Amino acid sequence: MPSAILPVSPLVAGLKCRCPRCGQGRLFSGPLNLRERCDQCGLGYAFVDTGDGPAVFAIFILGFLCLGGALIAEFKFGVPWWVHVLLWGVLTPIFAVFLLRFLKATLIALQFKNKAEEGRLAKE
Questions:
Q1: For residues 119 and 15, what is the distance between their CA atoms, to the nearest angstrom?
Q2: Residue 104 half-sphere exposure, CB side, CA atoms within 13 Å?
Q3: pLDDT at 120 over 80
Q4: Are 73 and 83 in contact (CB under 8 A)?
Q5: Where are the domains of the chain?
Q6: HEC states along the chain?
Q7: pLDDT digits (tens, 9 = 90+) for 8-41
Q8: Half-sphere exposure at residue 5, Cβ-oriented, CA atoms within 13 angstroms
Q9: What is the pTM of this model?
Q10: Which residues pair with 18 in a beta bridge?
Q11: For the purposes of burial, counting CB atoms within 10 Å of the CB of 13, is it exposed (0-12), middle (13-18) or buried (19 or more)?
C-alpha cells in the first residue's frame, strides 16, 4: 500500500466505479454487487450504506428521460405502440443498470469523503 494516497474526486470515482480511497480498485464484482474490499489498497467496504438513495435518484432521472423520449416518439414521429414496447422495454432496464452503478458508486465515494455515518447521541 502506498504511503501517501492522493484524494480521489467522488465524481471521478463514481464515473469509473472505483475505490473511493485510492481510485484504482474495482468497486463492484458484478453489475451491482459490491466487493468486500478494495483489491488495490485494502479498504473494507463494510462502512457502505447507500440505502435507497441510488434507486430514488434513478427513478426520477429515468422517469424524466423515458417519459420525455416516449412523448417525443409518440407526438413527433407517431410510432406505433409496439415500437414503444420494444424501444422502452429494452432501453429502460439497460439505462437503469448503468445509472444505478454510477449513482451507487458516487454515493459511496461521497459517504467515504465526508465520513458520513449513522447518527449517535454518544460515542461508543
A1: 28
A2: 20
A3: no
A4: yes
A5: 10-113
A6: CCCCCCCCCHHHHHHHCECCCCCCCECECCCCCECCECCCCCCEHHHCCCCCHHHHHHHHHHHHHHHHHHHHHHHHHCCCHHHHHHHHHHHHHHHHHHHHHHHHHHHHHHHHHCCCCCCCCCCC
A7: 999 999 999 999 999 999 999 999 999 999 999 9
A8: 16
A9: 0.84
A10: 26
A11: buried
Query: To which residue does cell 454515493 refer?
Result: 107
Could you tell me how many residues make up the chain?
124
In single-letter form, the type of residue at position 19 comes to C
Place of cell 462502512: 47
Count of C-beta atoms within a 10 Å radius of residue 74 = 14
Residue 34 C-alpha cell reads as 459490491
pLDDT digits (tens, 9 = 90+) for 80-115: 999 999 999 999 999 999 999 999 999 999 999 998
Distance CA 7, CA 27 (A): 16
C-alpha cell at 62: 429515468
C-alpha cell at 91: 432501453
In the block, cell 460515542 appears at 123
